[in-house]
Amino acid sequence: MDTLAQLAHGFDVAMTWQNIGLALIGCLLGTIMGALPGLGPSNGVAILIPLAFTLGLGPTPSMILLTSVYYGAMYGGRISSILLNIPGDEPAMMTCLDGYPMAQKGMAGEALSISGIASFVGAFLATWGLILLAPQLVKIALLFGPAEYFALFALAFMTLGGVSSSNQAKAAFAAALGLGLAMIGVDTQTGVPRMTFGEVHLYDGIDFLVAIVGLFALSEVFVFLEHRHGESDAAGRKVEIGRITPPWAMVKSCFPTMLRASGLGFLAGVLPGAGASLGSFISYSMEKRLVDREGTFGTGDPRGVAAPEAGNNAAAGGALVPMLALGVPGSGTTAVLLAVLLSLNITPGPLLFTQNPDVVWGLIAALFIANFMLLLLNIPMVGVFTRLLLIPPRILMPIVAMVSFVGIYGISGSSFDLMVMIGFGVVGWVLRKFDVPLVPVILGILLGNPMESNLRRAVQISNGDWWVLVGSPLAIGLWIIAILGFLAPIFFGRILRDRMKARSDEEGSLRD
Amino acid sequence: MSDRFFGAFGLALAIFYAYAASQIQESFLSDTVGPKAFPYIVAAIFGGASAYIEQRPDHEPVWPPLGRLVEIGAAVIVLMLYAQVLPEIGFVFATAFAAAYLSWRLGSGLLSSVIAGVSISVGIYIVFHLILGLSLARGPFDF
């Protein structure tokens, strides 16, 4: 009952004209970003953060805007998967398998509406999962001391590499790079400058927003320049949608699939390091095993469209659980959302639920509202979004680059930050070439300082005894999970990854 | 081969990082762990991972032909120039140039890239400055 009362309070917070308007804008922008190949949830949210700030939005409105974008992108990704056989963003790649064959059979409208309904079911159930699971996780997290937090951060880094990279050494490299960059600046505990080499601009440290926008958004522009991929994928193709209401029998036959896929996707989202791409992948694979008796999966089976869409939207909701309850994001976009909270001076984690209940419950209520808006936007109005697919990258990418510059310049007004951002763009492009995942870099920059201060606090409290780091059953448990999470992909991950790789492009390190 | 070079470069970077960490001035009022310990740990992981990459290289990445690399280099230079001249000549002019350049290099014709550049620049100016009230770089003409 307590939860329901808090949820009702959340609706009070969310139901202002400003918040509803922001949710609507977020849903629209998110769907567009998801639909356009080249702009996904993580870089879409990244270029909007600086804008949310410079507009002076408070914590709750900013989070409402940005998570609506996040949910919206999960919905939008399916549009180009179905119509063009090109995933609009990473998590939507599994939707191509059955969505495009359906479109070829002249059932594009049905495929779009079934996947829209599946997205809604997945996101709706996952938001309930978030409400039920997050407070439980908070109860555990309240038992954490500095040593346990240090172990938790280590766990996040060690498991994150598991799925996002084909090589654990490269994931470790990325995490260390991020942590190393986080050390730049004045040490918060002793006040001495570190790694600044006398450059005054570096005393404040590297602004993680600059790093995020550079790594995610600008590096994408360089990838497009590299391939000189300037024409729209939709150019010259006839995009026929047909009827947009699916027959009731089709919805009914897909419904059990949606429920199962939502459950599995939600779990995949909660696990650190998994994220929405894995959510849609395992949902599809499971459904194929379970219900594909006639071998219709892959030839345009509506259930093959419903499964990955319910899975990835549920995973998106699931990924918010560890981010809000523990302050440890499990995927690229939630890392970006964590950056928003941190820069608004709000520390996610167990205390968020007691100190800023407005932010948490307002956000959750806004997710419900956004979800209904998205259903309305994505089924009757899907035709509008399909027209946007005709925007060619030679127009889109300059807009992405310029909006990135506007956002970062708006925060600091300094050319130095712009230069650092370009630097991160180049580094991001090189790392993607080498198949080094970018998400651990971002996570390292975000979590480096809290991780270090928890380490120092733990050792300080125990008078210099480093064994305190493995001094409690809880800490030992976290370390064991961390080590298993790091080693397991080395032995079992290859098969899973090879299959996922087969569907993704060569610069696949920008995963969510 | 690329991975070997990458690993060796990472290893050099790790050694440099450890050296830079050793140069951190310790304050007399330090905690037990001090400001150096964590950077050393990071350097060790960085070095270890780099050494592993150097020893066990992955498949060769698909490198673009030289012309494409020059293309990216040129775009980086243009964007850096953009960052420098932005406060001098103002948002609208600088952005129109940079956006037109990127659009041209991504395959627009000369005329259409100029149109794209100007409309992107003016569009952003209208939406972000006039409607949303964001402060953009001001040049000599106040826009």
From TrEMBL, chain A:
Source organism (scientific name): Thioclava arctica
Regions that span the bilayer: 20-39, 45-71, 111-131, 137-157, 169-186, 206-225, 264-284, 323-347, 359-379, 391-411, 418-446, 466-493
Membrane listed as a keyword: yes
Protein name as annotated: Tripartite tricarboxylate transporter permease
Keywords associated with the record: Membrane, Transmembrane, Transmembrane helix
Protein's UniProt keywords contain Transmembrane: yes
PANTHER family: TRICARBOXYLIC TRANSPORT PROTEIN
Pfam families, sorted: TctA
Coiled-coil intervals: none
Limits of the DUF112 domain: 21-443
